[in-house]
């Protein structure tokens, strides 16, 4: 049994290609280069990140014709370059997953950050240090969507605003004085009334234009 387990481990490891050495950042100072490697399983692409001497498996994976991208970018605006691995999880390119590895300065290594990684279609705006995410099309003839805005407060990521729309209602939320999200607008959507048409989500964001994409050199 031990021999079989060892062989399976070697086969799985050998599926990963050459190591990509990232040492240049779009923003932030690189304290340690990131070593990453990719593997293809049918129409799915996964990756591993080297932490110290160990390779850690990432959770974000691409499907269909999409591929994973990795870049170094300061994602918590502390001056250090962090690692962002992102790729589309569906063949239609509607949902993009992210794995965010923030640089831990005292430990001198990258650490996985769950709050940022959990945001679908994560958007980092470098100019105004804005963070956003959401789903632009969740049904209702492409009229259903939601989008959230976030900010760092004392090293903690908090939601600062939300817009959402389903088949029947449109709502907006903002922070109150107690730093709680409260509803500030609630409208019924009635396509038969001109003044109550569905509110389109027009804030599309091309993340590839605003960050330097580190692609695999062998592609």
Task: Summarize it.
The protein contains 2 helices and 15 strands. It is mostly beta strands and 219 residues long. Strand 8 (96-104) and strand 9 (109-112) form a beta hairpin.
Describe the structure.
With 219 residues, this protein is mostly beta strands. It is built from two helices and 15 strands. The strands form three sheets. It has a six-stranded antiparallel sheet, with no helix packed on it. Strands 1, 2, 3, 4 and 5 form a five-stranded antiparallel sheet that branches. Strand 2 and strand 3 form a beta hairpin. The protein is flat, with a radius of gyration of 20 Å. The two termini are 37 Å apart. 22% of the residues are buried.
Proportion in helices: under 10%
What is the succession of H and E elements? HEEEEEEEEEHEEEEEE
Q: End-to-end distance, in Å?
A: 37 Å
Largest sheet: 6 strands, antiparallel
Class by helix and strand content?
mainly beta
Mean pLDDT: 80
Report the principal-axis shape. Answer: flat
Can you tell me the residue ranges where pLDDT is under 50 for at least 5 consecutive residues?
1-14, 204-219
- Please compute the radius of gyration using only Cα atoms: 20 Å
Beta content: 35-45%
Strand order of the largest sheet: 10-11-12-13-14-15
Number of strands: 15
How many DSSP helices?
A: 2
Primary descriptors:
5-stranded antiparallel β-sheet; disordered N terminus; 15 strands; flat; mainly beta; single chain; 219 residues
